[in-house]
Design brief:
Blueprint: E1 7-8, H1 11-24, E2 37-42, E3 48-55, E4 61-67, H2 73-101, H3 109-120, H4 123-126, E5 129-131, H5 132-143, E6 145-146, E7 154-158, H6 172-178, E8 185-186, E9 198-200, E10 208-214, E11 224-227, E12 232-237, H7 240-244, E13 247-254, E14 257-264, H8 266-279, H9 285-304, H10 306-314, H11 318-325, H12 328-334, H13 339-351
Parallel strand pairs: 7-10, 10-12
Antiparallel strand pairs: 1-6, 2-3, 3-4, 5-7, 8-9, 9-10, 11-12, 13-14
Helix pairs in contact: 1-2, 5-9, 8-9, 8-10, 8-11, 9-10, 9-13, 10-13
Length: about 350
């Protein structure tokens, strides 16, 4: 008998997470670092104004101008709004820390700052999707379970259809990312003639933001695809349209606070992870990671909502399902401790024979 792939959190914790999720929906603009505080400052001319002081993702103390002069009705109201937002963020951070102590997935400071910056510019509201291992960790929290999470320093952002943003990104997505206080530059591709599809932090430790988009029929996979509204390019990936077709909102939890992001639905991510594990080089570390994450999601969703899992499998192209079935024996071994999920898998396999 194989080991259980996940452990369910206690009901009290899932209730706390749900309350945190609902509260995060009304936060609006987020600090890209700690919640911080609102201070009163005086400039060289003697004018008093409001500033927001906080610690950024690198642990450096920063200040940003809020409004002025002090005493002006609009400036005072702006400062009061920021104070309210700071207080709300601090309260949510307390709940987030409690969840993390109990085994909920925690995003690192750079990832949180990056996602908060994209949230502030409306990318997730417009349809951008967090992918990769960070999305996997977010989904585990959302499903109320604990499982092994691979450490990653990559933030993967997917885009299906063109994003309809509330305001134009005049400096593109790189300009939006710059507001995270994490210094990023375009990462060169192996073929230097091709435009960059990633942004990297120079030096150590490594940190990178990758842009991904589906490959259309007229395009070749793994090549740069222009994303005009972001003034950038993304790597075109096969079958990514399947993953991005259904998404939901959930929260990223970090020590600095919480950020509401868009992620794939777990049933589609389960099948997509298993599919990608076959498409990658055999026995590569990333292939193994995708396979194990896919099996965990298969086990969780199979126990919670087997019909959703079957419905999502039915929307996969037959050729893609055939690739997943190549790992049937390994998948069945992984699911031995989860009979309901195993039954869903076997039902699917039987229907495709």
């Amino acid at each position: 008998m194989s080991k259980h792939l996940f452990t369910a959190h206690k009901a009290a914790l899932t209730t706390l997470y749900s309350e945190l999720d609902q509260s995060a929906a009304g936060l609006g603009e987020l600090s890209v670092g700690t919640a911080g505080s609102v201070l009163e400052r005086t400039n060289a001319t003697g004018t008093r104004f409001y500033a927001h002081q906080y610690y950024d993702a690198e642990g450096k103390k920063r200040e940003r101008y809020i409004a002025g002069p002090i005493g002006d009705r609009a400036a005072d109201q702006r400062a009061a709004d920021v104070r309210d937002r700071v207080a709300a963020s601090k309260e949510l951070a307390k709940s987030a820390r409690l969840l993390v102590r109990e085994g909920y997935y925690l995003a690192d400071s750079r990832t949180y700052a990056t996602l908060a910056a994209l949230h502030n510019h409306g990318l997730f509201a417009a349809g951008a999707v967090l992918l990769g291992s960070h999305a996997y960790g977010v989904l585990l929290n959302h499903l109320g379970v604990r499982a092994a999470v691979y450490e990653t320093r990559d933030v993967d952002i997917g885009r299906n259809d063109p994003l309809v943003l509330q305001s134009e990104l005049k400096e593109g997505i790189l300009g939006a990312l710059t507001t995270s206080d994490v210094r990023l530059v375009e990462a060169p591709r192996l073929n230097v003639r091709e435009p960059s599809t990633s942004f990297m932090k120079p030096g150590a430790p490594p940190f990178q933001v990758d842009l991904l988009t589906p490959v259309r029929k007229s395009q070749k996979p793994f090549l740069p695809v222009s994303i005009p509204e972001l003034k950038a390019h993304a790597t075109g990936l096969p079958y990514l349209d399947y993953l991005l077709a259904e998404t939901q909102f959930a929260i990223v939890i970090a020590r600095e606070g919480v950020c509401r992001v868009r992620v794939p639905v777990p049933e589609r991510m389960a099948w997509h992870k298993l599919l990608v594990s076959v498409l990658r080089a055999t026995q590569s570390p990333k292939s193994r990671k995708d396979f194990e994450q896919g099996c965990v999601l298969l086990a969780v969703v199979g126990e919670l909502d087997g019909e959703a899992l079957l419905e999502a499998a039915g929307k996969l192209p037959a050729a893609a399902r055939a690739k997943i079935f190549k790992q049937a024996a390994l998948i069945e071994k992984m699911l031995e401790a989860h009979p309901r999920a195993l039954e869903v898998w076997q039902s699917l396999k039987k229907s495709d024979q």
